[in-house]
Amino acid sequence: MxxxxxxxLHEKKEIALALLAGAVSGITAVALFAQSGLLISQxxxxxxxxxxxxxxxxLKVFGVVKSASKYxxxxxxxxxxxxxxxxxxxxxxDRLEPIASKLFNxxxxxxxxxxxxxxxxxxxxxxxxxxxPPLVAxxxxxxxxxxxxxxxxWIAFALLGGFLLVAVxxxxxxxxxxxxxxxxxxxxxxxxxxxxxxxxxLKHFHLLEHKKEKLLQLSINYSSDKRKEHHQIxxxxxxxxxxxxxxxxxxxxxxxxFVSIESMEGLYLAMLxxxxxxxxxxxxxxATAPYHYKQSExxxxxxxxxxxxxxxxxxxxxxxxxxxxxxxxxxxxxEEGINEVVRNITFTIEKAEKIAIVGPSGSGKSTLFxxxxxxxxxxxxxxxxxxxxxxxxxxxxxxxxxxxxxxxNHFFSxxxxxxxxxxxxxxxxxxxxxxxxxxxxxxxxxxxxxEKGENLSGGEKQRLAFARVLLKNSxxxxxxxxxxxxDNDTERVLFQEMLDCTKDKTVILIxxxxxxxxxxxxxxxxxxxxIGENGHFDELIAQKGLFYEMWTRRS
Length: 555
Hints:
Largest sheet: 6 strands, mixed
Structural class: alpha/beta
Strand content: 5-15%
Distance between the termini: 64 Å
């Protein structure tokens, strides 16, 4: 919570203005009702008309000031809150960005959605319900108690005691009491996200109704939790309201007693009673402060519970000819896994060398690919570029050197032009059209693309992704199964296009198709997480090992 307090302190000027406006609003509300009580008492004694006129004028002044200050208080306090939430969201995204490549290996999308929406929204209550109200109530009560002292010290003590009861004692009791906090919201959001993502599969396998029933039960549990929380809030407010009424009765009793013994003028009794009723309006919400504090604490903990384990290096690589890539005793295992997915991998890839990585499914090809593009961090060993370990290199400069095509690429809602320009924002339409032609994609730049490319076929998606690689045309090309959804003729054309474009560039190609590999400089054959064979196509065929078996089965 210290970080949250630090964020709030950054807005200290706005907070001070909001507190001032809130204090003025509270004090003028007390003054307005005090004036009303005095006016009622004075009117009963039939004073001169000018006294009634003056009191009425002050009544209007207090009313205008109260309304204006209340508006200013709401405006300033909510503006501060929105700025605080903006800072929190930015900090949360700063935590996500370094580990974005492996984010969904550790967190469900629904959980992240819950954190960035529900948890951030919960934190608005920290300032509006936990920090701000006690400070305003304290300022208003101090002024009110000082004013009341001029009429009755005992009534002032009664107000002070009532304030301690509703602002300190009752909230402390609720803090000690175990409070119910909803734990079903995140489960509901996680399952809802999975329901939306997997809707087609659930429908095809006739599990839609089963999943809907589960979601309905989670929704019922969430509604039940919210009712319990709402009941607790009402209970807290009821106890504080009862304490307020008790304080009012005490003030009435004390005031009536001192009026009866003529120690206090009866003219002021109605004024003091109305002051008591009004001043406690600022203190009644304080009973819920422990509840909102606990919720804010849990929300902030979840937002901060994103470890930024990614340590970006400081060495900036210049954009130039391809660099030499080295791997030394490289190994990786996923956190939830027991065995290493890749292990004891050592190799050197020279400048402008063309490397194909092949192997059976599950042999570790894609994991090695993610390590090469710095999407995953090795658990053992290291990868170096130009003799600098990836951990020492600025990630942005590294990715600038790479043109990457993944197995599953994301396409944004918009047009073909929009989806190409993420690889070349300043490029003119003429160049974009040439890239589409080279990628064998017969679509116009204005062709609409739905979210995730839902209206594109698998082959069109791969050709559009390949067009991005052509457009970026960096010194190092890394492609993971780029042509799996294409027919043989188109595959051969694009394979040759890749070779023609990369004569002076480094290429690392992962593929389970063995067509055209005789044109690559070397082939890494992976098996059970290691590079079992390494050499040119002809060498591997002559060895009659794993690659030879794969080639024979292909034939």
